[in-house]
Design goal:
InterPro entries: DegT/StrS_aminotransferase, PyrdxlP-dep_Trfase, PyrdxlP-dep_Trfase_major, PyrdxlP-dep_Trfase_small. It contains 12 helices and 14 strands. By secondary structure, the protein is of the alpha/beta class. It has 2 domains: 14-236, 3-Layer(aba) Sandwich (Aspartate Aminotransferase, domain 2); 238-356, Aspartate Aminotransferase, domain 1, CATH 3.90.1150. The strands form 3 sheets. The protein has a 7-stranded mixed sheet. Strands 10-12-14-13 form a 4-stranded antiparallel sheet. It has a 3-stranded antiparallel sheet with strand order 7-6-11, with no helix packed on it. The longest helix has 19 residues, at 238-256. It is globular. The two termini are 23 Å apart. The mean pLDDT is 97.
């Protein structure tokens, strides 16, 4: 048995559209970039979508577009992929870590409130593993909000897509994500001025019209036409991909829910998730060998898994701080293969392997 952690779902016009982009000779910018941006804005019900080179540059672009600068404090969760915090450090801003909820593994309004100071410029709710933070209460603080939806594309909160609650939403189109362009990402927003500024920053500080007349010190965050062609093929099958991802998650729940020593990530009734990765927290009383040894044991069975994110407090380049729930999750969470082509029989085998290594 060999079950990889992730397999990209390439079952449509990907090869055809990429070949068309190559034959057109428009391999940098081109029609597929425009088509993908139009599809994203239309289907996520937002005025503007700008595709970029990856999810991290999407965050960087959002911070710059909203005026985050050196010395500004920005609140981020202690348990999540650290792209947002890393970008903040690289632009001279200060990531301030707030703890996450024990059940949902998402940042909470209560933990945010405890971290707000007169230097707080923004909040970055990260929708971890496809769950969605309680956006209505987070927005009540009246502080800039940049939603990191890298793992939660098409997840909804109270019937509305994540990424559309904040001032800017950011997403990833990495190979493991719901739709992929190999590497890639995008930002969405409804503010015309912010969108125009981000478009200018994305392309070397050049305005839409005119050559070499830089109006600001920008970056090259652009996505290529070939990558966008891949994305255009991906979105044609997105409803099937979402359906299959939900099947995979629901099947894991059948086998793992209410099993001793295994705690699934929980979702509020307001959340309609598109799960990026099915993840559980392991109790050391049932798995005394520890999470890392469990990962090794599953690998011996031929099942590839991943540990949860290392909590911010365990990363040496951040100042010392306390996020106890994040630390617990960082030590105990394991995530499983979650992709459309994963069969129910494969999921049953994965769960059987996990249950077999309990004490």
């Amino acid at each position: 048995m060999k079950i990889p952690y992730s397999v990209p779902h390439l079952c449509g016009n990907e090869e055809k559209y990429v070949a068309d982009a190559v034959r057109s000779t428009w391999i940098s910018g081109g029609k597929y970039v425009t088509q993908l941006e139009t599809w994203l804005s239309d289907n996520l019900l937002t005025k503007h979508a700008l595709v970029v080179s990856n999810g991290t540059t999407a965050l960087h672009l959002a911070f710059l577009g909203l005026g985050i600068k050196a010395g500004d404090e920005v609140i981020v969760p202690g348990f999540a992929f650290m792209a947002a915090a890393n970008v903040l450090i690289n632009i001279g801003a200060v990531p301030v870590f707030a703890d996450v909820d024990y059940s949902t593994w998402c940042i909470t309004a209560e933990s945010i409130e405890a971290k707000i100071t007169n230097k707080t410029k923004a909040i970055v709710p990260i929708h971890t593993y496809g769950n969605v933070c309680s956006m209505e209460t987070i927005n009540e603080f009246g502080i800039l909000v940049i939603e990191d939806g890298a793992e939660a594309l098409f997840s909804k909160y109270k019937g509305k897509y994540c990424g559309t609650f904040g001032d800017v939403g950011t997403f990833s189109m990495h190979a493991t994500k719901t739709i992929t362009t190999g590497e890639g990402g995008f930002v969405i927003c409804d503010n015309d001025d912010v969108a125009q500024l981000m478009a200018t920053i994305r392309s070397h500080g050049l305005p839409t019209r005119g050559c070499y007349n830089h109006v600001l010190a920008g970056h090259n965050f652009r996505l290529t036409n070939m990558q966008a062609a891949l994305g255009c093929a991906q979105v044609e099958n997105v409803n099937n991909v979402i359906s299959e991802r939900r099947r995979v998650f629901d099947t894991y729940k059948v086998f793992l829910e209410d099993k001793e020593g295994i705690r699934l990530q929980q979702y509020s009734s307001d959340v309609d998730p598109v799960v990026w990765a099915t993840a559980v927290s392991l109790d050391t009383r049932t798995f005394p060998q520890g999470r890392d040894r469990v990962i090794a044991q599953l690998s011996e069975f031929g099942v590839e898994t991943r540990p949860g994110f290392v909590s911010s407090s365990r990363l040496r380049y951040f100042e010392r701080h306390s996020v106890p729930v994040s630390e617990m999750l960082g030590d105990s969470v394991i995530s499983f293969p979650t992709y459309p082509s994963l069969s129910n029989n494969d999921i049953a085998d994965i769960c059987e392997c996990l249950l077999s290594v309990r004490s």
